Amino acid sequence: MEASDWTYRGEGAVNLVLAYNGTRSDLVGKILRIQKVPRNESECGHDYSGLNKQECLLWEEFTEIVSAPTREIVQHYFVQHVMCPLLGSRHVDAGTSIHVTPEFLEAVENNVLQQRPAWRVDATKVNPLCDSVMLMSDLSVFPLDTTSSEVGEAFENLLKNVIQAQEGMRTHYFLELISKTVCSSGLLDRLLEVQKLDTTDIEGAIHAYYNIISQPCMVCGQLDKDQSTKRYNSLHSISMEESLKIVRDYLIAATAKDLSMIISFRPREAGNVESPYNIVSLESTNQSFDYKASFIDLDLKPLKRMEYYYKLDQQIVNCYVQMVKSKHQLDHSGSTVGA
Question: Would the keyword Kinase be found if you checked this record's keyword annotation (predicted)?
Answer without folding.
Answer: yes
